[in-house]
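Quick one - inputs below.
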Amino acid sequence: MISLPEWMSPRAAPDLPELPGVHRSPARHTLNGLARLLAAMLGDEAIAARPGLLQRIEPRAKAPGLIGLVVIATLLHSLTALGLAYLLCIALAAASRMPVRRFAGAWLAAPLLSAFIVLPAVLNVVTPGEPLWAFRLGSWRLAVTDAGVHFLAIFVLRVAVCVSLALLLAVTTRPAQLFRGLRALGAPKIFIMLLMMMERYLTVIVRAAEEIHEAKLSRSIAPGSLRQEQAWVAAGMGALFRRTQKLGDAVYLAMISRGYTGDVYLLDEPRWSWREWAFLAAAIAVGAGLLII
Amino acid sequence: MHIPDGYLSPQTYLPAYAVMSALWAWASKRVNSTLRLRQVPLLALGAAFSFVIMMINIPIPGGTTGHAVGAVLIAVLLGPWAAVIAVSLALIVQALIFGDGGITAIGANCLTMAVVMPFAGWGVYRLIAGRAPTSGRQVIASAIGGYAGLNVAALAAAVLLGIQPSIAPGYNPFGLKVAVPVMAGEHLLVFGFVEAIVTGLVLAYMARTDPSLIPAAASPRRSLAARLAIGLGVLVLLTPLGLYFPALAKAGGAWGEWGPDELPAKLAEYGQPARAPVHLERLSAVWKAPLPDYAMPGLEEAPLWQLSLFYIVSGLIGVLVLALVVIGLQKLFARKDTDDLPAGVDVPTGRA
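Output:
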């Protein structure tokens, strides 16, 4: 298997150096974001190509299996069940040779952000219950309640499980195959084709946006006034739209030149083996088990 | 505004998916019938454009940056139904491939950002731009459309989040009283203006460089009667607001509209003898309304959602009865007029 060279890995997408006088330029901010997006797309492709447990499962079984487990996770209200589901996610990540750095985003960052957002829910003003720790804030008498802490633990664990499962699906599957996997969930063919085309041309549009920003930055010494900068960003978006339309026309011509008549054909799907059946059976068993706990 | 997994209960995200499935089917049918094959690659690329627009930062006062959703911009440039598909595709790819927004919340997120936002914004744009707009009017209309579209979408997202504590505890813990002011506040004060600036300035750029890219507003195909019916329908559907707002503010009945059952308590408040005037009691017993307080008789104290349904039903009955009365009167008097005319005079009926 060919692995990505170090300079193409997501970690190697450096933030552009800040120059005196041009610091915190929105154009730089955008360029950094676009570079990170491209790097993440390349990095995830590399993970999807690794020989791991989930990588071996055909997406038509993997997508319904993992999305089904996400739905079940949203139904769980027991700490034990959610804790077990969380451990299962970590085990799956390890078995799929997921890099710790990539998984940590879902494993830690998303739950911590959610915990921060719903933190006031531990207080008696949002969740009444037995006070565990009472304190005064000015003239307010507040208390952390047992029901509030229980709610926070369940909420954060549930978010962690959902985000981890979604990440496992996204990272261990090539996007085009993931979209094909949506067929198993009843998505129409035209929808799958649109998603595949969009994903295919996303890199082209991202590159076009990068070029617009690079061209500007390489020709400016200092940022202009707020109004000038805003007008420039809008002109860039307008130019991007015109490029999008032109590209759409070119793609359309290419499609009819190859005989496109509006019918959608997807390539033959690989056959199912015992692995797919085993994975689906395991997903159903785990889902049912978690609901019973 | 991307709602993650775990914040919405299945009681919310499943209906959102059901609504979106129907809308996606309808949107693709509509797009297919209007622009046919050429639209297919344009929709896919429009989705990629929509995705990238959400990543482009624009400077805002205070030295920080913000980004737009762009749904109204796409609705103005490609039409609202194309925007439904393009923005939905962008949101699906964001959720499935990049983990931005939850998988279970895709339906709800598409409902707010890919349906409510482009339609609300596009509606406002069309309303202000009119039928034969100048470029200046188009730019202003699109900026206001962007502002309105984003704020209505934020309100819709806040309502979806805010109803969680009352329909299924254990998900988003903050009720409408917290979710709506927080979401509405930040969008009314900051993000709405970012959306307005982006939408307006892009349209200004288009108008300056290639006005042919901005589609001209098509003349309305619906008849006056159909538009009137749609307007009335929307108003009827909005009538339960008259129940929700007083309930939210814990307000009583309208001042001065008290019945003989409420009046004694009110009079007592003002230090008057707590007794309804004799004639009021006698006269109010003369006629018993078939739908007292716009509710089913005997169900005046039902839960708010049941009362809302009866409000809508009452609204429909009211509109129908009034329409029948007016049509009847029109028939009656129109005939009378022609009867009075001397024979041989041709009366224009108003119908071509």
